[in-house]
Design brief:
Strand order of the largest sheet: 1-2
Structural class: mainly alpha
Number of strands: 6
Number of helices: 11
Strand content: 5-15%
Order of helices and strands: HHEEHHEHHEHHHEHHE
Length: 234
């Protein structure tokens, strides 16, 4: 315990610097570790994660909202979710999702033969945009929840159901003829947002909130009573 107190004292100045580290540091890292030929772990260091959070990066927000949790320290994700309503920007989310949809549609789906799974790389962002427009809150991860937004469009809904069924039994990079009804929906939504620009709606949170979260995570690692990691399966 005495050693821990000395350790904490020596880190006092370090924690003071942490209060500005999110805002000032650009030395962020992507983390990628291959476990075996089928599985790879991807992520970011804490500072980059918080910077992406501030930008309403969809990947980070989707990770926070994912129903699948492998490891949870019981601290960071909980605190970040508490901040989400005050930080996540629907305007920025729409901009990010629109960029994703445009890029994947242009690259993969404007051909006679298309990779089936790439349809979901376009459909999901577009449905997420519809969710943000309707509810002004981060979109859910589950595709089945998002597709309810277009359930009244029966031709489109049937085409999506057929696409899902084909995807379950298809090879990873299987090509098939383009699906006209889905392409029409995609082009209509992209056209609807053709002149979209990021809005300037203010947020209730500030960088200070993220800096406090960073500091609290670092401090929690020095707490001898820190809870054991909880590991969850699928």
């Amino acid at each position: 315990m005495k050693l821990l107190n000395i350790f904490n004292k020596n880190l006092f100045g370090f924690f003071q610097k942490c209060s500005e580290i999110v805002k000032k540091s650009d030395l962020f890292k992507n983390i990628k570790k291959t476990i075996d030929f089928k599985n790879t772990i991807n992520g970011w260091d804490l500072r980059k994660a918080l910077k992406l959070f501030w930008k309403s990066n969809p990947a980070f927000i989707e990770w926070l909202k994912s129903p699948i949790v492998y490891v949870d320290d019981g601290h960071f994700a909980v605190k970040a979710r508490e901040l989400m309503p005050n930080i996540a920007s629907s305007h920025r989310g729409i901009y990010h999702y629109l960029h994703m949809a445009k890029g994947n549609y242009r690259e993969y789906l404007k051909k006679d033969l298309v990779p089936l799974k790439k349809y979901f790389y376009v459909l999901r962002p577009l449905l997420a945009i519809m969710w943000l427009e309707k509810y002004d809150e981060p979109a859910p991860i589950e595709f089945e929840v998002l597709r309810r937004l277009v359930s009244e469009n029966k031709p489109l809904d049937d085409a999506i159901s057929d696409l899902l069924a084909r995807k379950r039994v298809s090879l990873e990079k299987e090509y098939a003829p383009a699906v006209p009804v889905i392409n029409e929906f995609i082009e209509s939504e992209l056209h609807r947002h053709e002149s979209y620009t990021v809005g300037t709606k203010g947020r209730d949170a500030t960088f200070d909130d993220l800096n406090k979260l960073l500091k609290s995570v670092l401090e929690s690692r020095l707490n001898p009573a820190h809870a054991l990691l909880k590991v969850h399966g699928l």
